[in-house]
Fold this protein.
Amino acid sequence: MNDKVKKDQMDWEQLMAKESGNILYDEFDEGIRFIIMRGPVSLCAYIGIPIAHPLAGHNYDDLPVCAHGGLTYSSEGKGAWPEGYYWYGWDYAHSGDYCFYYDREPLVGRYDHSTDQKWLVEDVKEDSWSTLYDFKKLLRLTEKTKSNIK
């Protein structure tokens, strides 16, 4: 990849060439970490909560957060996910989303994916702003609740 091309400006073919687990965008904002990762079949977005925070360690189904296709992941950081955070994530491999493997293994005669959206990093960033906002509100709420209990 040309050094002058930022990771978050990659086109579909450049994303296809990346390996699963490659972090393509990494940002810290108001106490949380937001990453976009190349997953095995699509881009995935993750919110990292500091591991000692009271919002860390919950099952993703228990959080009242709206995300593209819903939250689908929660786990402590390890492997491709940076340590020191508890990660909540969602993917872009739902109905209407174009998956990486469609280019390698077309489902000839079964489905037409020509109108599905090919999510780029910039698209995921734009789509995720409301999810980030929800997490920031939850972060503040859990901090206030914890301080009220003391």
The first helix runs from residue 12 to 17.
